[in-house]
Amino acid sequence: GMQCEDDRTGIGVETLKRAFLDNLFYVQGKFPALATKHDYYMALAYTVRDRLLQRWVNTAAIYTQQGSRTVAYLSAEFLMGPHLGNNLINLGIYNQVQQAMTELKLDLKELLAKEEEPGLGNGGLGRLAACYLDSLASLEIPTLGYGIRYEFGIFDQLIRNGWQVEKTDKWLRYGNPWEIARPEWAVSVKFGGRTEAHKNAQGRYRVRWIPHKVVLGIPYDTPILGYKVNTANTLRLWKAEAPESFDFEAFNRGNYYGAVDQKVTSENLTKVLYPNDETYEGKQLRLEQQYFFVSCALQDMLRIMLRQKLPLEQFHEKFAVQLNDTHPAIAVAELMRLLLDEHDMDWEPAWEITQKTFGYTNHTLLPEALEKWSLKLFSSLLPRHLEIIYEINWRFLEQVRHKFGTDEGRIGRLSLIDENDGKFVRMAHLACVGSHKINGVAALHSELLQKTTLLDFYEFFPEKFTNITNGVTPRRWIVLSNPKLTNLITSCIGDNWIKHLEDVQRIETYAEDPGFQQEWQQIKRENKVNVAEILLDRTGVKVDPDSLFDIQVKRIHQYKRQHLNILHAITLYNQIKQNPNLDITPRTLIFAGKAAPGYYIAKLIIKLINSVAEVVNKDPDIGDRLKVVFLPDYNVKNSQPIYPAADLSEQISTAGKEASGTGNMKFAMNGALTIGTLDGTNIEIRNAVGAENFFLFGLTTEDVGALRLTGYRPREYYKENPQLKQAIDQIASGYFSHGDRSLFKPLVDLLLDKDPFMLMADYQPYIDCQQQVSQTYRDRDRWLQMSILNTARMGKFSSDRAIREYCQQIWKVQPVPVQLAA
Ligand code: 26R
Predict the structure, then answer these.
(1) Is there a catalytic annotation at residue 555?
(2) Atom 12, ligand 1: which residue's CA is nearest?
């Protein structure tokens, strides 16, 4: 019979076409003959947004009605990636939309490519937050993600003459169809000034904060739809504005520029994401950003409680607040301030509520990444919070004395104030004391936290500590990125695995089936051809899709050891040069990743990769046996085709340094084999896929510690290993730098004299292991079987599993299913 679908909610092909053309007309103000590709992208985005809004409004209504317990995920970074493709997958309308576009003579792929991704994060931590929002919505958990609406996200990377050049990321230039501003929920945030005492109605002492300036926080909401459910949660990002757009007094005095000054300074607060990853800088603006979004978030939660007429004593029952590293740790002091000063609560109940509210996730052990703020800066910006922190510290250290007696060494190590070399507030200590649960992000990482970085805290409150191994969402990282593999898996076992990744294990029975292997290989090859085209387009380098695709994509950092990988490239090059007829397994080495703009050695590593590539790729003796390529501007969008095209995943950090890694999971899920150290989640991936399906090499964390203690002499390895010596000597002699001996000298000196990440010690084991990889790749059936088993056994590494663990162990929160109103 006739059925008429609503243009804003229907998902039939005809309805989608009609809605799309309607949005092109009424939102973009265009008709097809004048429309650009970008107009078409926007029309499609609004068509999808209408369908999201239906679910979003229903979700909000149900959460409000039921007063649901809610997770608040506080993160300075959310690296969401493009929304359109993901929303099509989660709505379950990818195929219908593709057909609708085809019938309108448009190519969905081209429209998807038009989206500017919101690059509001640096790397692992920001992308983890995005995967967790996807899983929280898919598991129907009421959630608010709180963060900063940076006007400029992570810079765009250009490569000029082999060097990284940074370009500002103007992601909002053409408008953002996925967000809705909510100025009606703006809040005020105070900075600086002084405090004074006064008495409340009961005659008790209270503190008033008289700030030096006030900034307005405006929330911008983005709906986060779960996979094939009606739950659409909210990502609420805050933009800073001046309280009034003009200082009218100054304006009336004829000082127009002075009047806009204040506006400009306030809006600077959320202008730009700090592009540092794992290296802390004590910059005032960064502390301002952190306090700004945390205060906005907590005030927003209090508003929600008051609207739902919940007493503030129930704050921890209404909200489970997670601190994504220490970036939002000031929340501990801010919630105390709000409860004490603004809501007249007494210290003891306020402190109990605060501790029950927060959980703290640590994401790194690197000492240079631990945040501490000088008392000078802290007291000038947040005078009231410093008073509160002193009080928390005083009470905490009393408890320490009670448990351990006067052990001044221990007290100094536990104190929230670092007094060793100048005075600082230690944010990790504030987070530990103010939270009821503290977790690391992989089994090894959590163990090392307890044994090293947070040992004293572990001894004081062991019951707070737990591990939750990271995961990634199979929706973006398999279904959206690798549609061909998705179809093959689904044709064998149905599509339940997309929600329950443990189920993908069922493809194991096909691991040795020649027909299945054949299709598996064919899909990998097509994905490699796709990346070969991208590489040709972006770098001009032609690569052989039949060569082994050996890929390392991640932030450039010494501990991740991209330079160890390049030493292998040079070694292969030298082997071919010495024996031009050498029958080696042809390889394509692909690198991508950004370096922090101020991280000199990381930028030099990028230059080295490009310099080696230049020599290797144009050498006729080498031919198709070896290619080295650096793909510029690694981000979520550019990464999506990469994982499905990998044969080999490089996870080669110095043992004990990579907290978890998440790229390692994305590769293995897509059938890449891993060459890796016993670091982070590599250990758990190896346990899951089987040692025989993983290429392990290198020092263990224990070895690293022992070698340091006995005196590490990197130059000895160089002297005693002719292959290693040749590679290093070539770098030093200008072989890859047109004779320039000074260019790479800082890197070479660092490796031979200090080698803080022990490349010299791990070099030969790495080369030997790579030789094993090359041998194995020649046994096609064996490789395919290993590849299939890797995908089949990655169930544990879905972010759904991780989020279930957070819900049970930390948040104590239940699903709230959403039905669409008829
Ligand atoms: C303070 C500051 C400059 C800063 C330090 C550290 C800024 C950003 C970071 C990033 C850190 C916290 C990070 O991204 N860590 C990564 O977290 C991932 C998700 O848990 C892990 O997979 C990865 O191993 C870890 O490096």
Answers:
(1) yes
(2) 363
